[in-house]
Specification:
Number of helices: 2
Strand order of the largest sheet: 1-2-3-4-6-5
Radius of gyration: 14 Å
Strand content: 25-35%
Structural class: alpha+beta
Order of helices and strands: HEEEEEEH
Largest sheet: 6 strands, antiparallel
Number of strands: 6
C-alpha cells in the first residue's frame, strides 16, 4: 500500500518548523527532505528515520522496521508527537549528508 496524499501532507506540516520541507515521490512512497537533506522515508503511511548513534538514546523506546523490502532497519518516527519528532530531527539533521550530485560527466 502506498502513502496517501493526506498522510504525506500531514507529515510535512508536522515538520514545517524545521526548515524548508519538500517531498519526492519514489515508487508510490515518499522521501521527505528538510533543507535539502533526505530526512524521512514515508512508506505505507509510516514515517521512518535512519538509525544513527546520535539519536539512539532519544529513540530507545521507539519501534523500528524496514521501510521497504531489502532496506536497512530504520526507526519509526512517531510523527503525531510534533515536539518530540522535531527534537529528534534537529539532532539528526546536522549529521545527515546532502545527496550526492548525480550529474553525469562525459569522459573523452
Amino acid at each position: 500500500m502506498a502513502c496517501t496524499a493526506d498522510y504525506i501532507e500531514y507529515v510535512c506540516q508536522q515538520l514545517s518548523g524545521l526548515g524548508i520541507v519538500r517531498t519526492r515521490k519514489m515508487f508510490g512512497d515518499y522521501l521527505v527532505y528538510v533543507d535539502e537533506k533526505p530526512a524521512v522515508l514515508v512508506c505505507d503511511n509510516t514515517a521512518y528515520i535512519k538509525k544513527h548513534h546520535v539519536i539512539d538514546a532519544m529513540m530507545k523506546d521507539a519501534e523500528y522496521g524496514c521501510p521497504y523490502s531489502g532496506a536497512k532497519e530504520h526507526y519509526i518516527l512517531n510523527i503525531e508527537h510534533k515536539d518530540k519528532a522535531e527534537e529528534v530531527l534537529r539532532t539528526l539533521l546536522p549529521v545527515l549528508a546532502f545527496p550526492k550530485n548525480r550529474s553525469r560527466t562525459s569522459k573523452v
